[in-house]
Design goal:
By secondary structure, the protein is of the alpha+beta class. The radius of gyration is 23 Å and the shape is globular. It contains eight helices and six strands. Helix content is 37%, strand content 8%. Strands 1-2-4-3-5-6 form a six-stranded mixed beta sheet, covered by helices on one side. The structure holds zinc ion. The site of zinc ion has 5 residues, from strand 2.
Length: 262
Amino acid sequence: MRVNTLKRVAVAFALALPGAAIATVVAAPAAHADGCYTWNRTLSQGRSGDDVRQLQIRVAGWAGYRDIVENDGRYGPKTAAAVKRFQQAYGLRADGIAGPQTFAKLYQLQDNDCTPAHFSYTELDNGCGGSGWSGGPLSANQTKQNALRTMWKLEALRRSLGDKPLNVSSGFRSRACNNQVGGASDSQHLYGNAADVTSRTSSLCQVARGARNNGFSGIYGPGYPDHDDHVHVDSRRENNSDSSSNTTSWSAPDCGVGAGND
Ligand SMILES: [Zn+2]
Protein backbone atom coordinates (compact mmCIF):
# COMPACT_ATOMS: atom_id res chain seq x y z
CA MET A 1 0.00 0.00 0.00
CA ARG A 2 2.68 2.29 0.99
CA VAL A 3 4.62 1.68 -2.19
CA ASN A 4 1.49 2.16 -4.24
CA THR A 5 0.71 5.46 -2.64
CA LEU A 6 4.20 6.68 -3.27
CA LYS A 7 3.97 5.54 -6.85
CA ARG A 8 0.73 7.42 -7.36
CA VAL A 9 2.25 10.53 -5.90
CA ALA A 10 5.26 10.16 -8.16
CA VAL A 11 3.04 9.74 -11.23
CA ALA A 12 0.95 12.74 -10.30
CA PHE A 13 4.10 14.76 -9.82
CA ALA A 14 5.48 13.65 -13.18
CA LEU A 15 2.21 14.58 -14.89
CA ALA A 16 2.23 17.96 -13.24
CA LEU A 17 5.79 18.70 -14.29
CA PRO A 18 5.34 19.37 -18.02
CA GLY A 19 2.54 21.78 -17.24
CA ALA A 20 4.62 23.55 -14.66
CA ALA A 21 7.54 23.79 -17.04
CA ILE A 22 5.36 25.28 -19.76
CA ALA A 23 3.84 27.76 -17.34
CA THR A 24 7.33 28.93 -16.40
CA VAL A 25 8.37 29.40 -20.00
CA VAL A 26 5.19 31.28 -20.89
CA ALA A 27 5.39 33.49 -17.83
CA ALA A 28 9.01 34.52 -18.34
CA PRO A 29 8.54 37.32 -20.91
CA ALA A 30 5.78 38.93 -18.84
CA ALA A 31 7.79 38.77 -15.61
CA HIS A 32 8.96 42.03 -14.16
CA ALA A 33 11.98 43.18 -16.04
CA ASP A 34 13.25 45.00 -13.04
CA GLY A 35 13.09 45.01 -9.27
CA CYS A 36 12.40 48.74 -9.17
CA TYR A 37 9.86 49.67 -11.80
CA THR A 38 8.56 48.18 -15.05
CA TRP A 39 7.01 50.16 -17.86
CA ASN A 40 4.10 48.46 -19.57
CA ARG A 41 3.56 50.58 -22.67
CA THR A 42 5.52 52.59 -25.18
CA LEU A 43 5.55 56.29 -24.29
CA SER A 44 5.66 59.20 -26.68
CA GLN A 45 4.48 62.79 -26.93
CA GLY A 46 0.92 63.31 -25.74
CA ARG A 47 1.03 60.48 -23.19
CA SER A 48 0.59 61.19 -19.52
CA GLY A 49 0.60 59.23 -16.30
CA ASP A 50 2.80 57.98 -13.53
CA ASP A 51 4.82 55.91 -16.01
CA VAL A 52 5.74 59.17 -17.77
CA ARG A 53 6.68 60.70 -14.43
CA GLN A 54 8.90 57.71 -13.64
CA LEU A 55 10.57 58.16 -17.02
CA GLN A 56 11.05 61.89 -16.44
CA ILE A 57 12.96 61.23 -13.21
CA ARG A 58 15.36 58.99 -15.11
CA VAL A 59 15.98 61.30 -18.06
CA ALA A 60 16.11 64.47 -15.93
CA GLY A 61 19.84 64.68 -16.59
CA TRP A 62 19.36 64.84 -20.34
CA ALA A 63 17.51 68.16 -20.27
CA GLY A 64 19.99 69.93 -22.54
CA TYR A 65 21.86 73.15 -22.02
CA ARG A 66 20.42 75.33 -19.25
CA ASP A 67 17.13 73.49 -19.27
CA ILE A 68 15.15 71.13 -17.05
CA VAL A 69 12.69 68.31 -17.63
CA GLU A 70 9.52 69.00 -15.66
CA ASN A 71 8.50 66.07 -13.48
CA ASP A 72 4.81 66.60 -14.29
CA GLY A 73 3.83 63.23 -15.78
CA ARG A 74 3.13 64.79 -19.19
CA TYR A 75 5.20 63.70 -22.17
CA GLY A 76 5.83 67.00 -23.92
CA PRO A 77 8.55 68.17 -26.33
CA LYS A 78 11.14 68.58 -23.55
CA THR A 79 10.62 65.03 -22.36
CA ALA A 80 10.91 63.79 -25.94
CA ALA A 81 14.12 65.78 -26.43
CA ALA A 82 15.56 64.40 -23.20
CA VAL A 83 14.69 60.83 -24.20
CA LYS A 84 16.39 61.45 -27.52
CA ARG A 85 19.56 62.68 -25.83
CA PHE A 86 19.47 59.69 -23.50
CA GLN A 87 19.15 57.38 -26.51
CA GLN A 88 22.03 59.10 -28.30
CA ALA A 89 24.22 58.92 -25.19
CA TYR A 90 23.77 55.16 -24.95
CA GLY A 91 23.95 54.34 -28.64
CA LEU A 92 20.26 53.55 -29.10
CA ARG A 93 18.05 54.51 -32.02
CA ALA A 94 17.32 58.16 -31.22
CA ASP A 95 13.65 58.81 -31.95
CA GLY A 96 12.49 60.44 -28.71
CA ILE A 97 10.02 57.61 -28.15
CA ALA A 98 10.43 55.49 -25.04
CA GLY A 99 9.89 51.90 -26.13
CA PRO A 100 11.44 48.51 -25.37
CA GLN A 101 15.04 49.47 -26.21
CA THR A 102 14.91 52.57 -24.01
CA PHE A 103 13.29 50.72 -21.13
CA ALA A 104 15.81 47.87 -21.45
CA LYS A 105 18.64 50.37 -21.03
CA LEU A 106 16.92 51.96 -18.04
CA TYR A 107 16.43 48.51 -16.44
CA GLN A 108 20.10 47.88 -16.98
CA LEU A 109 21.01 51.19 -15.38
CA GLN A 110 18.74 51.12 -12.38
CA ASP A 111 19.24 49.16 -9.19
CA ASN A 112 16.37 47.47 -7.37
CA ASP A 113 15.95 50.52 -5.13
CA CYS A 114 15.58 52.69 -8.27
CA THR A 115 18.92 54.44 -7.92
CA PRO A 116 21.12 54.63 -11.02
CA ALA A 117 24.03 52.21 -11.36
CA HIS A 118 26.80 54.45 -10.09
CA PHE A 119 25.12 56.27 -7.19
CA SER A 120 23.38 55.10 -4.05
CA TYR A 121 21.10 56.44 -1.34
CA THR A 122 23.89 55.83 1.14
CA GLU A 123 26.24 58.05 -0.82
CA LEU A 124 23.70 60.88 -0.97
CA ASP A 125 22.67 60.63 2.68
CA ASN A 126 26.09 61.12 4.15
CA GLY A 127 25.63 64.68 5.39
CA CYS A 128 27.06 64.27 8.86
CA GLY A 129 27.08 60.52 9.07
CA GLY A 130 23.69 59.70 7.56
CA SER A 131 20.40 60.75 9.08
CA GLY A 132 17.84 58.63 7.27
CA TRP A 133 16.50 61.60 5.27
CA SER A 134 14.82 63.29 8.20
CA GLY A 135 15.59 66.59 9.90
CA GLY A 136 15.16 68.77 6.83
CA PRO A 137 12.28 71.05 5.82
CA LEU A 138 10.60 68.31 3.75
CA SER A 139 9.29 64.89 4.71
CA ALA A 140 11.87 62.11 4.58
CA ASN A 141 10.06 60.64 1.59
CA GLN A 142 10.04 63.90 -0.41
CA THR A 143 13.67 64.45 0.44
CA LYS A 144 14.55 60.98 -0.75
CA GLN A 145 12.64 61.54 -4.00
CA ASN A 146 14.65 64.69 -4.63
CA ALA A 147 17.84 62.79 -3.93
CA LEU A 148 16.80 60.14 -6.43
CA ARG A 149 16.34 62.72 -9.18
CA THR A 150 19.68 64.29 -8.20
CA MET A 151 21.34 60.90 -8.66
CA TRP A 152 19.87 60.38 -12.13
CA LYS A 153 21.22 63.78 -13.12
CA LEU A 154 24.61 62.80 -11.74
CA GLU A 155 24.47 59.55 -13.71
CA ALA A 156 23.89 61.58 -16.89
CA LEU A 157 26.74 63.94 -16.02
CA ARG A 158 29.00 60.95 -15.37
CA ARG A 159 28.07 59.44 -18.73
CA SER A 160 28.62 62.78 -20.49
CA LEU A 161 32.11 63.00 -19.01
CA GLY A 162 32.99 59.69 -20.63
CA ASP A 163 32.00 57.31 -17.83
CA LYS A 164 34.49 58.91 -15.49
CA PRO A 165 33.63 58.25 -11.83
CA LEU A 166 32.20 61.10 -9.75
CA ASN A 167 32.34 61.19 -5.98
CA VAL A 168 29.68 62.84 -3.82
CA SER A 169 31.31 64.42 -0.78
CA SER A 170 28.06 65.85 0.59
CA GLY A 171 24.45 65.19 -0.37
CA PHE A 172 21.42 65.58 1.87
CA ARG A 173 22.00 67.45 5.14
CA SER A 174 19.60 67.74 8.04
CA ARG A 175 19.29 71.23 9.53
CA ALA A 176 21.60 70.25 12.37
CA CYS A 177 24.18 68.93 9.93
CA ASN A 178 23.89 71.96 7.68
CA ASN A 179 24.51 74.26 10.64
CA GLN A 180 27.45 72.14 11.71
CA VAL A 181 29.18 72.46 8.34
CA GLY A 182 28.25 76.12 7.93
CA GLY A 183 25.94 75.63 4.94
CA ALA A 184 23.70 78.41 3.62
CA SER A 185 20.57 78.84 5.75
CA ASP A 186 18.22 77.71 2.95
CA SER A 187 20.72 75.40 1.27
CA GLN A 188 19.49 73.02 -1.42
CA HIS A 189 21.31 70.30 0.52
CA LEU A 190 18.49 70.51 3.10
CA TYR A 191 16.02 69.37 0.45
CA GLY A 192 17.98 66.41 -0.93
CA ASN A 193 18.33 68.58 -3.99
CA ALA A 194 22.09 69.07 -4.09
CA ALA A 195 25.39 67.26 -4.28
CA ASP A 196 28.96 68.37 -3.78
CA VAL A 197 31.00 66.57 -6.39
CA THR A 198 34.67 65.71 -6.70
CA SER A 199 36.49 63.60 -9.23
CA ARG A 200 39.90 61.99 -9.54
CA THR A 201 39.63 61.67 -13.30
CA SER A 202 37.85 64.82 -14.47
CA SER A 203 38.85 68.37 -13.62
CA LEU A 204 36.42 70.37 -11.50
CA CYS A 205 35.96 72.73 -14.44
CA GLN A 206 34.98 69.82 -16.68
CA VAL A 207 32.40 68.86 -14.06
CA ALA A 208 31.10 72.43 -13.65
CA ARG A 209 30.87 73.08 -17.38
CA GLY A 210 29.33 69.69 -18.10
CA ALA A 211 26.69 70.06 -15.41
CA ARG A 212 25.11 72.91 -17.41
CA ASN A 213 23.79 70.27 -19.84
CA ASN A 214 22.50 67.83 -17.26
CA GLY A 215 19.52 69.54 -15.67
CA PHE A 216 21.36 71.32 -12.87
CA SER A 217 20.08 74.85 -12.33
CA GLY A 218 22.49 75.60 -9.47
CA ILE A 219 26.23 75.21 -10.11
CA TYR A 220 29.04 76.60 -7.94
CA GLY A 221 32.65 75.70 -8.58
CA PRO A 222 36.23 76.95 -8.82
CA GLY A 223 36.55 80.69 -8.36
CA TYR A 224 33.39 80.92 -6.26
CA PRO A 225 34.20 81.36 -2.54
CA ASP A 226 34.83 78.04 -0.75
CA HIS A 227 34.24 76.00 -3.92
CA ASP A 228 37.77 75.43 -5.17
CA ASP A 229 37.85 71.80 -3.99
CA HIS A 230 34.45 70.62 -5.21
CA VAL A 231 31.59 71.52 -7.51
CA HIS A 232 28.18 72.08 -5.96
CA VAL A 233 25.28 71.12 -8.23
CA ASP A 234 21.58 71.44 -7.40
CA SER A 235 18.04 71.61 -8.77
CA ARG A 236 16.87 74.91 -7.29
CA ARG A 237 14.70 75.69 -10.29
CA GLU A 238 12.54 72.68 -9.49
CA ASN A 239 12.35 73.45 -5.78
CA ASN A 240 9.02 75.08 -4.90
CA SER A 241 9.56 74.68 -1.17
CA ASP A 242 12.60 76.90 -0.68
CA SER A 243 12.60 80.68 -0.31
CA SER A 244 14.44 81.44 -3.55
CA SER A 245 12.86 82.07 -6.93
CA ASN A 246 12.96 79.22 -9.42
CA THR A 247 15.82 80.55 -11.48
CA THR A 248 19.20 79.35 -12.65
CA SER A 249 22.24 80.36 -10.64
CA TRP A 250 25.72 79.43 -11.86
CA SER A 251 29.09 80.63 -10.72
CA ALA A 252 32.43 79.00 -11.39
CA PRO A 253 34.43 82.02 -12.61
CA ASP A 254 37.68 80.08 -13.03
CA CYS A 255 35.87 77.76 -15.46
CA GLY A 256 34.08 80.46 -17.44
CA VAL A 257 30.76 79.44 -15.89
CA GLY A 258 28.41 82.19 -14.71
CA ALA A 259 27.69 85.86 -15.20
CA GLY A 260 28.01 86.60 -18.86
CA ASN A 261 30.08 83.49 -19.64
CA ASP A 262 27.35 80.89 -19.71
ZN1 LIG B 1 27.01 72.19 -1.81
